[in-house]
Amino acid sequence: MNPDRRPLIAANWKMHKTLAEAISFVESIQRETGPCSDREVLIGPPFTALKAIRDNLKQQGYSLGAQNCHWEEKGAYTGEISPLMLKDLGCAYVIVGHSERRQLFGETDETVRLKTAAVIKAGMAPVVCVGEVLGEREGGKTFEVVGRQVEGALGGLSAEQMDGVVIAYEPVWAIGTGRTATPGQAQEVHAYIRARISSLFNKAVEKNVRILYGGSVKPSNIDALMAEPDIDGALVGGASLEVGSFKSLVQFNV
Length: 254
Hints:
The chain has eleven helices and eight strands. The longest helix has 18 residues. About 40% of the residues lie in helices and about 15% in strands. The protein has about 250 residues and is of the alpha/beta class. Helix 3 links the parallel strand 3 and strand 4.
C-alpha cells in the first residue's frame, strides 16, 4: 500500500441481499466501523438496492457503486441500466468487465472499453476488472492476458480521463474458489499493471491510479495483501456479505 493513494475496500455483493437485508447491512457496518478518514469503503449492491443504500450511507468515507451498466445513455435496450441512470441514483463508481460478466454474459475487451468510457463521460469512476483464468496462469500467459485487457479497456482515454479510474486485478482462478494469489503473486501483477499504465499514459497516472486485488480476499489475508506496495485495496465478493468479515477487511492493519 502506498500512502499517497487512499486505500479502497469495495464490496461486490453480486446477486445477493433483499432490500431489507441491504439496509440492515449498511446500517450495521457504519455503526460498527464509524467514519473512515484514511480509507474509502465502496458498497456495490444489486440495482434494486442502490437508492435505499444511497439514502442510508451517512458515514464519512463511504461511497456507492453499481455492478454493471450499458454503454449507451438511453435507448431500446430492454433490461439494461445506463450510466446516466446510475449517476442520477448517486453512484460514484461502476464495476465493469468483471470476470463473471466476461465468462457468463459474453463481455469482451471492446464492450469493457465502451462501458469504461461511458462511465467516465457520465461523471463516475469505473472499477475495471482484469485477470487470467487458471489455464492462462499455468501456461505462463498472465502478463499477456492482463496486459491485453488493460490496454483494451483503457484504449482511447486521455491521461486526464484516467483521473479516478480504478483497476481491479482478479485472477479468475481465485474468485470464489478459496484459492488466493499469494501477496507476492498479486504484487507482481499489480506492478506489471502499473508499469503498463505508465507506458500507455505517463508517470503521473501510474503513480496515482489505484489497483485493487480481488479473489478470495478474507480477514486472514487482507493485512498481508495490503502490505504490498502496489496493492491499494480489495474488491471483495463473499467476505463482503457478512458484517463481521467485511468490518475486519475495512479495518485492515499494515
